[in-house]
Specification:
Blueprint: H1 2-5, H2 9-19, E1 23-27, H3 33-42, E2 47-51, H4 56-62, E3 66-69, E4 95-98, H5 100-108, E5 112-128, E6 141-154, E7 160-164, E8 172-175, E9 180-183, H6 195-206, H7 215-230, E10 235-238, H8 243-256, E11 260-266, H9 274-285, E12 290-294, H10 296-303, H11 309-330, E13 336-338, H12 343-348, E14 374-376, H13 384-393, H14 398-401, E15 415-416, H15 422-441, E16 450-456, E17 460-465, E18 468-481, E19 489-490, H16 495-508, E20 512-517
Parallel strand pairs: 1-2, 1-3, 3-4, 4-9, 10-11, 10-13, 11-12, 13-14, 15-16, 18-20
Antiparallel strand pairs: 5-6, 5-7, 7-8, 8-9, 16-18, 17-18, 18-19
Helix pairs in contact: 2-7, 7-8, 8-13, 10-11, 15-16
The structure holds xanthosine-5'-monophosphate.
Xanthosine-5'-monophosphate (XMP) binds next to loops.
Length: 530
């Protein structure tokens, strides 16, 4: 890829060409709208999620190869239900309606849509009566996943009903002359085994996409963009060791080389060897100019006597900014700042769908908007898994690419209900090391969204060790599975693994005499304890 990254004008044109191959997903408020865009990209077609009310001119300007109308929670008959504008169906661009998208389309075109007496939620069996273009080459009997009450009873005039299920007389239809397609089931979820094939039929055969897009091609485009934006200016990047800031920094380095300086603020709240690993990866391996600001003393001094979680977060955030600003000043205040903003952040902050659900405390350790930098955000178009793919392409180690998320305030918010001290950090760091070591050895690290330890600061328990009474710290193991941290389930770690972890922690860490497991999902719990 390195050669390809030295893009000239010709390659840049190719990238632009790849983007005109895009398929737009119009969001009618469905739970899986983002997932549809991700699946389309996995099929090799660039895709963006836009609100269902996106101006028609914007759609025309983009000239997408196809439109996908997402599902949504409303009934097509309810007040204020998002309306499908019929003009969208007349642009000469193939349209695929999914669930609500299909119903809205059928309604708009004069089909019969009614609320069924029985809803269809979860697993369903689909029978394909006529394969048409949408199901060509696919089995006549398929399992699929449905979630609807409104149902299409008759397809619109001119359209052919293709499939049915027990509760959906028309579970799919197509009007090849007008390029309009509808499916009641959700092709984007894993519970629809042929879902990706149906999407591929639409993208490949119907829309004529060349199916060659990859996350790597965004990398090339971004590198060209960064060069254009930055010119010969100086760039600074706060490196946390997480995959987002790491990939963003590497892309910028590929684009403008040593015009970039990375700053790693070591607040002393990291896990064991974390600082060394960041230095080894960036300075030694990628030869990216890197400044390590050793600020442990400053952070610990700030945290002295502080027990309240939000106060900890605020102090750490404020101190982080102070250290970062000092380093920026030493570098002569570069004009540009790299941020690892992801496409899901863009969507969540209203950039994509108009929905304004911004996560509040999760940006601690980030930088406030009033800093005098111009932002460079090379990951704005990428989903997390695509960022990982780009990282791997850029030669990042598997360990860095697959690193679990780690909160900005670090171990400080895992020493709960009491003061953060050097001793407690050391205990927590040792416990965390044992847990990660065993989880990695068991090959489970990647299956977990996060795995870590929590140390109740002021809790001690009585034990008996070597015939003597002990009075020690309690370590809590927290391991969760999740897709996006919005919801999470506690991970069912094998008993023998848990036993090894507990016994190692108690044997290797003299201050610890009890290990417990947190079995709370989110909601009602949160992932972190503070
Ligand atoms: P919760 O605890 O709210 O966490 O379920 C959801 C995700 O966010 C991470 N998290 C943070 N990240 N600064 C961060 O950068 C924070 O203050 C913070 N608090 C929680 C948490 O690790 C999980 O991935």
């Amino acid at each position: 890829m390195t050669d390809a990254l030295a893009t000239g004008a010709a390659e840049r044109e190719q990238v632009t060409e790849a983007k005109t191959q895009e398929v737009l997903v119009l969001d009618f408020g469905g739970q899986y709208s983002q997932l549809i865009a991700r699946r389309v990209r996995e099929c090799g077609v660039f895709s963006e999620l836009l609100p269902h009310h996106v101006p028609l001119d914007e759609v025309r300007r983009r000239a997408p190869r196809g439109l996908i109308l997402s599902g949504g929670p409303a009934s097509v008959y309810s007040d204020g239900a998002p309306r499908l504008r019929s003009e969208l169906l007349e642009l000469g661009i193939p349209v695929l309606g999914i669930c609500y998208g299909m119903q809205a389309m059928a309604l708009e075109l004069g089909g019969r849509v009614e609320s069924a007496p029985v809803g269809e939620f979860g697993r369903s069996e689909l029978t394909v009566h006529e394969h048409g273009r949408l199901f060509a080459g696919l089995p006549s009997e398929q399992r699929c996943w449905m979630s609807h009450r409104d149902t299409v009873f008759e397809p619109p005039a001119g359209a052919t009903a293709l499939a049915s299920s027990s509760e959906s007389p028309v579970a799919a239809f197509e009007d090849t002359a007008r390029g309009l397609y509808g499916i009641q089931f959700h092709p984007e979820v894993v519970h629809t085994p042929y879902g990706t094939d149906v999407l591929r039929r639409f993208l490949d055969d119907i829309c004529g996409c060349d199916m060659s897009w990859s996350a790597a091609s965004v990398a090339e485009e971004q590198i060209a963009r960064i060069r254009e934006q930055v010119g010969d200016g100086r760039v600074i990047c706060g490196l946390s060791g997480g995959v987002d800031s790491s990939v963003a920094a590497l892309l910028v380095h590929r684009a403008v080389g040593d015009q970039l300086t990375c700053v790693f603020v070591d607040h002393g709240l990291m896990r064991r060897n974390e600082g060394e690993q960041v230095v080894a990866a960036f300075r030694d391996n990628f030869h990216v100019p890197l400044i390590v600001a050793n600020a442990e003393e400053r952070f610990l001094a700030r945290l002295a006597g502080v027990t309240e979680p939000e106060q900890k977060r605020k102090l750490i955030g404020a101190e982080f900014i102070r250290v970062f600003e000092e380093e920026a000043a030493k570098l002569g205040n570069p004009k540009f700042l790299v941020q690892g903003t992801l496409y899901s952040d863009v969507i969540e902050s209203g950039g994509g769908t108009g929905a304004a659900t911004i996560k509040s405390h999760h940006n601690v350790g980030g930088l406030p908007e009033d800093l005098e930098f111009e932002l460079v955000e090379p990951l704005r178009m990428l989903f997390k898994d695509e960022v990982r793919a780009v990282g791997a392409e850029l030669g990042m180690s598997e360990r860095l690419v697959w690193r679990q998320p780690f909160p900005g305030p670090g171990l400080a918010i895992r020493i709960v209900g009491g003061e953060v001290t050097r001793e407690r950090l050391a205990i927590l760091r040792d416990a965390d090391y044992v847990l990660q070591d065993e989880i990695r050895s068991a090959g489970l690290y990647r299956d977990l969204w996060q795995s870590f330890c929590v140390l109740p600061a002021d809790l001690r328990s009585v034990g008996v060790q070597g015939d003597e009474r002990s009075y020690g710290y309690v370590v809590v193991i927290r391991a969760v599975t999740s897709d996006d941290a919005m919801t999470a389930d506690w991970a069912r770690l094998p008993y023998d693994l848990l036993e090894r972890v507990a016994s190692r922690m108690i044997n290797e860490i003299p201050q610890v005499n009890r290990v417990t497991l947190d079995i709370t999902s989110k909601p009602p719990g949160t992932i972190e304890w503070e």
